[in-house]
Amino acid sequence: MALKTSSPRKGGTNRGNGPEGIDSIPLRYGDDPYVWACWLYYEDGMTQGEIAEAMGVSRATVNSYLADAREKGIVNISIEPARLASLTIAQELKRHFGLADCLVVPNDDDTRPLIGRLGAAGAQALTKMIKSGDTLAVAWGRTILSVGEHLEMGPLQDVTVVQATGGTTASFAYTPELTTAAVARAISARCVNITAPAIVASAQMHDMLLDEPLIREQFDTLARANRIVFGISSLRPNSTIHTSGFFESVPLQHYLAKGAAGVLAGRFIDERGRPVAGPLDDRTIGISLEMLRGIGTRVAVAGGFDKVPALLAALRGGYANVLVTDAATGAGILRADGVTSLDGKLSQRQKSTPVANAYRTHVKKFLNNPNDVVDEMLDGLIAAHRPYLLPVVGSRRALVARNGPRPGKVGLVIGGGTGHEPCFVGYVGKGLADAVALGNIFSSPPPDPIAKCAVAASGGVGVLFVYGNYAGDVMNFEMAAELVEEQGIAIRTVLTTDDIVSSPVEDKEGRRGVAGNFFVFKVAGAACDRGMTLDECEAVTRKANDRTYTVGVALESCSMPQTRRHNFEIGPDDMELGMGIHGEPGVSRERIRTADEIVDTIMDNIFKEMKAGAGDKVAVLVNSFGGTPLMELYILFRRVEQRLAAKNIVIEANWVGHYCTSLDMVGASISILHLDRQLADLLHHPCQTAILTINAPETDGAARG
Amino acid sequence: MSETAARALARMFERMSEAIETEKDHLSELDGAIGDGDHGITMSIGFKAVNAALAALDLDAASPSEVMSTAASGFLDAVGASTGPLYATGFRRAAQALAGRDRLDLAACRDMITAISEGIRDRGKAQRGDKTMFDVWLPAAEAATTALADGKSERDFWTAVTTAASNGAAATATMVATKGRAARLRERSLGQLDPGAVSANALIRAISNTL
């Protein structure tokens, strides 16, 4: 008798074995018993027994259909990537450190604070581990308190929760007492506190207290603990350990000096997990590291990059055998311990041959002696741009505009490393920068040429320094400012910070300056040339910087003349988003996409921050990093224009070309300056430099070019 | 020992320069991973300039302090970058610490290393654990202080200093950079040694080999 598809549950004959026993597969399954079995199992949610009945085969056959279907690729089980990543990381952590178990929370949910997510995960881990009759020791801390707050458990019998250290004053919410109580309450356990201070005044006091019968009894309970949950504290300056009041700051410095990398349950360990001896050791009342390591289940709950060294130390020392952390921290720990296999697993890509093979050993360049490139370039450049600039006496690295500085005008000094040509030197001339100080490739100039520039640019009413926000430039320009201020020249500084992906908006001051320099220099130069005061020049330059937004994308990294090798490799199908102008790696590596999609990503980033409405005016700069030709820049500009037009934002002025490069790097950046009336006015102010010339507007009122 | 302290310091800078030349490519490679790939070149230029500046100094007449301040200006005028101000400030502080001294005993060495460490800290506003050269200079200075206080022999003093320095350099792999260009990489800097820390370790080894 044939089975009817309309009544699959009927029958249950045992006349057939295996596929040949099925004489009527419903048409929609295309004569394929595997597909039919899979459909019933995965889509209709039937059990294997029900499927066997429906298909008229044995349960074992159904089972093998389902297994084969996965092997044949008929069924693909996909796990949401963020979850898969955290699973992979958990597995690697477990393997690498020989852990009993590991739970890694995905980083896909940035809306909730990390402490809360770790607390929930820690609670989940505990729920699986605590059994009736257990004694659970609990160490203090913010994360562990969060575990207690998230913990919910069905009724268990005879569970004891014991505080792992003495107590502290209640100046913070996560004292040992409160943390322990929260955990005990959540699982309705008996709560045993250690009724002595965590740190006492002397070793004698420590010994006396431990002799007290009450405290000894509490310690006996602690010694019976078969599970412990603890946090791990870093010793970084911003760590809560410094503000918790748990330790006095002076002994803390002592432990730091002896190489302490982390603290667990009030005890210090070095980066290899070895105990660090110090003055608090015999004054601390609480579980010892040795006792801790003797406990069967040792659950550490901690996350955050600043905790990586501390976590690594705890894992290396074998203090934790169950780890609860977040995906980013977990990946960080593995990377910090030299595990490289992870990146390949996370990207889920086909293994490809190493990229390096695709490159020649050396990049071809026009060179004499690689060590002379900067000086030889400057010789050529000074000769080529003679109408605009000349060296300040005795230095090629300090160049001054021929018709720039004049009495009563604020001097504008710009500068930075070389390798960015035509930045910075192309912007020296009347109406723009008065002087430029140049360093080696991608290296800040030393204070001396900067100071020479300041003196040369000074017109007696102060000098404005404008340069990109890089640690080296800041230090050298600051030292130069100190030098010239001693000579009575007032110095103001505006750091350019236009690269919006280099730091989040909360850390706007930490961003680096990239191609948007072009707009900031132009505005500053115009302000100085107009005879505005030092205060006014500084303010309007700052405004220009605040309203300039740049995002860069690199396709290939650059090669230094000395090495003639790529600084690093970007994979054949990859691009680097947020690339800087020094060949330093960007912020994230992604698959390369179409030009329009790349521009869309960039513009979406910019629109997130730039509050420009319909009718607002902007200036646009599409800039090559050196290796990308104009053809591609225009393709990018095309899409930028479309995206701006769709918002009815007006492009008041635009530049497309090589304006701030990074040697031969392949890639481009898009900069948008959100104009207001004053900035638009200054942008159109005339200037004559090697790279940028803007003529005075026609007197007959014609539109500006 | 007939060699003057000034000559010993000049020889120390020669050794430092040699150490950097040996490590040059390695340093640039490390820097390529998290920075802009020029650390080896920058350090090489800087220490060559120091030696050129010291060559112009009359070492028989110069004081150790003068050697240090000459090295500071030589370094700074040649490189700029971020290492320029950092080491120049460090050497300048060392010049102050050595002022009035004509012997390089262990106390002087301790003061010199401490002064370099403090100069670097103040100029770079660095803290322990920021993944910088300071993570090598600070432990080295601390080890020197402790070793001297414990009355260690000259041999043990230098062993303590170099061990602290190399442990410090190795530990930078576990740190997330918060200063300099590597800071933009955030967690991607994990697992990478800091090139500035590695070169600092080479310099301290060179100091120990000379003094």
What would you note in describing this structure?
- Chain B: This is Dihydroxyacetone kinase-like protein.
- Chain B: It is an enzyme of class 2 (transferase).
- Chain B: Residues 7-209 form the DhaL domain.
- Chain B: InterPro entries: DhaK_L_YcgS, DhaL_dom, DhaL_dom_sf, Dihydroxyacetone_Kinase.
- The complex is a heterodimer of chains A (705) and B (211).
- Chain A is α/β, with parallel strands linked by helices.
- Chain A has three domains: 27-72, Arc Repressor Mutant, subunit A; 90-340, Rossmann fold (3-Layer(aba) Sandwich); 372-694, Dihydroxyacetone kinase, domain 1 (Rossmann fold, 3-Layer(aba) Sandwich), CATH 3.40.50.
- In chain A, the strands form five sheets. A seven-stranded parallel sheet of chain A has the order 1-10-9-5-2-3-4, sandwiched between helices. Chain A has a six-stranded mixed sheet with strand order 11-12-15-13-16-17, with helices on both faces.
- The radius of gyration of chain A is 34 Å and the shape is globular.
- The model of chain A is unreliable at 1-20, 348-359 and 700-705 (pLDDT under 50).
- With 211 residues, chain B is mainly α.
- Chain B has a single domain, classed as DhaL domain (Serine Threonine Protein Phosphatase 5, Tetratricopeptide repeat), CATH 1.25.40.
- Chain B contains eight helices and no strands.
- In chain B, helix 4 (83-98) packs antiparallel against helix 5 (106-124), helix 5 (106-124) runs antiparallel to helix 6 and helix 6 (134-149) packs parallel to helix 8 (195-210).
- The longest helix of chain B has 30 residues, at 5-34.
- The chains are: A alpha/beta (705), B mainly alpha (211).
- At the A-B interface, helix 13, helix 14, strand 15 and helix 18 of A face helix 1, helix 2, helix 3, helix 4 and helix 6 of B.
